[in-house]
Amino acid sequence: MRVSRVQAEENRQAVINVSGRLFREHGFDGIGLKDLMKGAGLTQGAFYKQFASKEDLAAQASKRAMESAAQIWAAAIAENPDDPLGTVLRFYLSMGHREERMDGCPVAALGSDAARQSSTVKASFETGIRAYLDTLATMVSAPQGEETKDKAMAILSTMLGALTLSRVVNDPELAQGFLTAAERQIRETAAR
Fold first, then answer.
1. Where does the record place the HTH tetR-type domain (predicted)?
2. What is the rounded CA–CA span in Å between residue 107 and residue 24?
3. Is this model's pTM higher than 0.70 or not?
């Protein structure tokens, strides 16, 4: 049975959305096309009508996941415009975010996997990372001669490192320690 163009596009968008979540949970190489399509409620045969390759899907799903993360940051900031950095730090460096791999930060979930992917997949991450940096740069000030971009890079690096380390350990106290120490260090960095 043929599906309409509208339905085909809805199916394509569903595959991109579901794949972004499943890639974050399993990694790019940890899940096959059959399971990605099954997750979207479609058959594997429909895949090749919608995507050139798994790499094509990985790039599109990564782009969508990064855009979604940027929207989460924007929504959180909009809720508390008086303390945008504190707002981002509270949700990003939280135990809840640590546990939320499928909908959490794509860079923290897939960063090391993305480093081994094609330039197309990396480009999706790079665009999202630049958006993170631009957002963070608006939240910090810099002394004469120092660029806010440098501070934003240090802050993002600290956030990602702390979240990644917190996910690697079993001990919840140690995990929380990484998150708390990172938040304290970021606040000190931002205040300088």
1. 9-69
2. 9
3. yes
